[in-house]
Every structure is written in C-alpha cells, then in structure tokens.
Amino acid sequence: MPRPYLVRSAIAAVLASSAVVAVPWSASAADNQPPAQPQTSELNTDNQACAAGPDRPFVRNRPTMSAVLRDPESRPVTAEFEVSWTDAAGDPQVRTLTDIGPKASGSTFSTVVPNDVPAFTEVSWRVRAYDGALWGQWSSAGGQSPCEFVYDY
Asked: 0.85 cut: is pTM over it?
C-alpha cells in the first residue's frame, strides 16, 4: 500500500509541473497591450508637419489629416480621428471620424476634414488607434499638443 505522504508529494509534483506549463500560455493570452500613442512627428495636415499655436498652417481647402499608427503586437489597427473647433456662437464643436481601417500596424491612415467645418476657423485634431480589443492613447495625451490648422478659404 502506498504511503500517504508519497502520494501527496507525487500529486503536488504533477500539479506544479502542469502549472508551469500553463502559466506562459495564460500570460501570453492575456497580455494584449494597447496600440502605441501616435508620434507627433508622424502626423500631417495636408502633407505639412503637425503644428500648433503660431506655427499652425493656413489651408485653403478641406485638408487631409494623416497619421502612422502602430500596435506593439503588430495587430491590425483601426483609426479614430477627432476634429474640434469653436463655432461663431462660441460653442465647442467636435466631430469623430471612426472605422478607418483596419490596416496593418505601421500603416498610414488618412481622412478629410468634415464638410461642416466653417471657413476662417482655427481647427484642432487628434488621432488614436484601436486593435480590436483596446484603444491606444490620443496623439494629444501626456501634454502633447493636438495638431492645428486655420481653415482659410
């Protein structure tokens, strides 16, 4: 008849070895990181570098906003652009442009500024990525400025 302490030791050894095998799989399955925050150096307004304040460009047409978006695990990502301005009555206006993609991580995403942005208006925009499970930070997060331009047609 087996000794009880040997049986317990054998069971403990089997459980410990199966736990070691299961831990890496469990950790990797739950280890999705959010997409990377877009780099200001990879944001453009009508092929002009992202700028704000006195450096913001003046544009004569509805510009194309573009951004390179990345995911740390190289998952495909979708872009969300947000455009904002203050209307003639002083009310803030925000338009969200979603479902741009999905595309491979590291791709350039672009969209045109919405039709309802009025002329002679200071406009700001930002962008973020979604990997199908998590949203990344906005390009303007962490003290970074949003991109700006003046729509001056």
From this structure: no
